[in-house]
Structures are given as structure tokens and as C-alpha cells.
UniProtKB/TrEMBL annotation:
Stored Gene3D superfamilies: P-loop containing nucleotide triphosphate hydrolases (3.40.50.300)
Keywords recorded for this protein, A-Z: ATP-binding, Kinase, Nucleotide biosynthesis, Nucleotide-binding, Transferase
EC main group: transferase
InterPro entries assigned: P-loop_NTPase (IPR027417), Thymidylate_kin-like_dom (IPR039430), Thymidylate_kinase (IPR018094)
Family in the record: Belongs to the thymidylate kinase family.
Entries under HAMAP family matching the protein: Thymidylate_kinase
GO terms for MF: dTMP kinase activity
Protein name, entry field: Thymidylate kinase
Cited PANTHER family: THYMIDYLATE KINASE (PTHR10344), UMP-CMP KINASE 2, MITOCHONDRIAL (PTHR10344:SF4)
Length: 215
């Protein structure tokens, strides 16, 4: 059985870059790795509804924090067979975003903390009701919100399919989300967390050693 490792962080934190770097580093260690990014845009009707909602294509859908949270959760529920298959056949399943993203952004939108009602609801829906696998480790790629916003802005200007959405354009939301992520990590929500500095560079070798030789 493989290990389920999740990379979390703000929009623009560098999660995709870290996913690619860790995949290479794990391969160099002789480990087999499969990766998956959420939301699964272009592969899941629920994810596509999320993207369309974030660009205001479905009226006031985005205004419903629980409605959007449920779409994110349904996207992951449909991916459970793929995740479990990956765990059966690989040493590491590496996810770019997972359940904690739903918890952090929803709680931030409602101006709640990590010990609030929305985070409890996310766990009840995604883990208890939908049966999503619990992560073995979650990595918080921590960057100042201003740095993440600058990166997201640059990405939007250079990648045709990465226009900033309603969440990425809300600087106050991003700052509140960063605070909730810090709280989730501090309380070891769902699993142990590793907090890494995404602003100054990540020690991939040390991070990989901690993933494949936990404890």
C-alpha cells in the first residue's frame, strides 16, 4: 500500500512546481509515483462546474459557500477509485490540493477558524460520508499572501487558460485562507503536516526523506 501525500497552499504558492520537483526526487530515490491535481478540470463535470462558477457563468452559484464546497467534494468522491488504484500500485500518490483546500477556502469565505462549523462539515462530507482516503502526510507550501498573489497575477498573464478567478482575485480572502491553513497544520487536521517555506526555496531532498522514511 502506497502513501497518500498532499500538497496544500494558496493560489500561486507553487504547488504544481513542487509536485513536479517531488515527483522527480522520488523517482531518483527509486520510488514509483502517480500524481493527481484537484479540481480535475476537463475530466470531471463537477470540477468544470466549479471553474465556470468561479468565472460567474452560473449566476449566484459561487455565492453559496456550501454549494461550491459540495461540488469540490463531489469531484474528489468520483476520483476515489483512481486514488485507491494508485495506492495499490505505487509507492506514493501525490496530490495537488485535497480535502484541506475545501476546508481552508470555505472557512475563510465564511470568516471562520479551523475549529469552526464549515471545517467540521467538510470532514463529515468528504471523509466520513464519501469515504475519501485519509492522507498520510500533508505539506503546507507556505508563502506570504502578497507573494502568492503576485505569482498568480504573473501566471494569468502568461498562460491563456489560467485567468484569475473569483477566489484568486480576492486578496482579503487569500490572507484569511492562509491563516486557516496555518491553523489546520497546527492542529494536525486529518494527518501530520509538514510546513515548508515556499518563498525562499524548498529542500526537496530533505522533504522526500521525510516522506519515504516517516518518523
Amino acid at each position: 500500500m502506497g502513501r497518500l501525500v498532499v500538497i496544500e497552499g494558496l493560489d500561486g504558492a507553487g504547488k504544481r512546481t513542487l509536485t513536479e520537483a517531488l515527483t522527480k526526487a522520488l523517482h531518483d530515490e527509486g520510488r514509483t509515483v502517480t500524481t493527481l491535481a484537484f479540481p480535475r478540470y476537463g475530466r470531471s463535470v463537477h470540477a468544470d462546474l466549479v471553474r465556470e462558477g468561479l468565472h460567474r457563468r452560473h449566476g449566484d452559484l459561487t455565492d453559496s459557500v456550501y454549494g461550491m464546497g459540495l461540488l469540490y467534494a463531489l469531484d474528489r468522491r468520483d476520483a476515489v477509485p483512481e486514488i485507491r488504484a494508485g495506492l495499490d500500485t505505487h509507492d506514493v500518490v501525490l496530490l495537488d490540493r485535497y480535502v484541506a483546500s475545501n476546508a481552508a477556502y470555505g472557512a475563510a469565505r465564511l470568516e471562520q477558524r479551523a475549529d469552526g462549523e464549515f471545517v467540521r462539515w467538510v470532514r463529515e462530507i468528504e471523509i466520513d460520508r464519501f469515504g475519501l482516503p485519509v492522507p498520510d502526510t500533508q505539506i503546507l507550501l507556505k508563502v506570504p499572501p502578497a507573494v502568492a498573489a503576485e505569482r498568480a497575477e504573473k501566471r494569468a498573464g502568461t498562460e491563456a487558460d489560467r485567468a484569475k478567478d473569483a477566489y484568486e482575485s480576492d486578496d482579503d480572502l487569500q490572507a484569511r485562507c492562509a491563516a486557516v491553513y496555518d491553523e489546520l497544520a497546527a492542529m494536525s487536521w486529518l494527518s501530520a503536516w509538514r510546513v515548508v517555506d515556499g518563498a525562499t526555496g524548498v529542500d526537496h531532498t530533505g522533504l522526500v526523506a521525510g516522506l519515504v522514511h516517516p518518523g
